[in-house]
Structures are given as structure tokens and as C-alpha cells.
């Protein structure tokens, strides 16, 4: 008839996290009740696409076939907003039209004007992320001519980086 809050206790049972809720004791024969559960579960970022709950109504009285269980699968959707920030040093570069790449030279100045690009990938949350792939396409050729000589590529913060085959071909 009325609404009551349940007293629930979490515990481990056979390596599984179990939440036991006492519905009433004693309960009259033929009683019907409706229970709405609200669960708060953390650490779902790496759970995949769904989480499964096994629900069972058990009586402390003698076992009966009405102690059936039901499985409920709830989809998991992690939410995180990523932001890519970048800048170039210098901010503007004008390549001279008369400049020519010096074949075989190991001096940096013979391979063009130094331009540094810095990118920062930020997670604005609320969830954590893993397995992110960032692909940067940097134009290094203009026809058959070298536009930018790609010297090096580095990362910070535990990221892995795969290098482009055109990276520092003259080993400057």
C-alpha cells in the first residue's frame, strides 16, 4: 500500500558482488510487492557494451520452485568529450620560392625553415577514455618537391606513436 525504503547490504558471495535486500519478515502468504531498484555502479569504462544483473527472490522458508531468477542486461554508454588543441611555432611561415632542398646535406638549415607543431589532446570528461587513435596528416610534399621536411615526432603522457615512413629520411 505505502512506499518504504529497503535496507540493503552489499557482500561477496562465491567471488561475486551481491546486494541483499530484506523485503519483509514475516510476509503474509499471497502478498504481492513491487520493488524499484536504483543501482549506482562505478568503473564501467572498460565493461564493454552492457552490464548484466542476476536478480533472484529467495525465501528463508523451505525452498520452493517460485524462487526463480531473472537476468537483466543494461546497455552501458560511457560519455567523454575530447578536445584537440594545437599551435605552430612560428604561427605563420612563408617559404621562399627560391629555396631549394640540398640533397645529401645533414645540416638542418639546408632542409628548410624550422616549424614546430604542438598538439594537445584533452579529455573534458565526464568519463575516462582508452584506446584513442589520433591521426595527423601533414603535407610534406608538393608534387615531387619537399614542402616540409619531417624531422621528428614525439609524445608525452604515456602515448604510443607510429612514425610516418617519410620521417627524417636523410637522418639529419
Question: What would you note in describing this structure?
Answer:
The protein has 172 residues and is mainly beta. It folds into two domains: 69 residues, no CATH class; 94 residues, no CATH class. Helix content is 0%, strand content 31%. The chain is built from no helices and eight strands. The chain has a two-stranded antiparallel ribbon with strand order 1-2. Strands 3-4 form a two-stranded antiparallel sheet. The radius of gyration is 31 Å and the shape is rod-shaped.
Topology:
Layout (H helix, E strand, L loop, with lengths): L6 E7 L2 E7 L27 E7 L12 E7 L4 E10 L26 E11 L14 E2 L2 E2 L26
Antiparallel strand pairs: 1-2, 3-4, 5-6, 7-8
Helix content: under 10%
β content, as a range?
Answer: 25-35%
Which outline best applies?
Answer: rod-shaped
Give the distance, in angstroms, between the N- and C-terminal Cα atoms.
Answer: 82 Å
What's the main sheet like?
2 strands, antiparallel
Q: Numbering strands along the chain, what is their spatial order in the largest sheet?
A: 1-2
Class per helix and strand makeup? mainly beta
Number of strands: 8
Helix-strand string: EEEEEEEE
Global mean pLDDT: 79
Radius of gyration over C-alpha positions, nearest whole angstrom:
31 Å
Unreliable segments (pLDDT under 50, ≥5 consecutive)?
A: none
Number of separate helices: 0
Number of domains: 2
Keywords: Glycoprotein, Integrin, Membrane
Subcellular location: Membrane
GO biological process, one term: angiogenesis
Membrane topology: Single-pass type I membrane protein
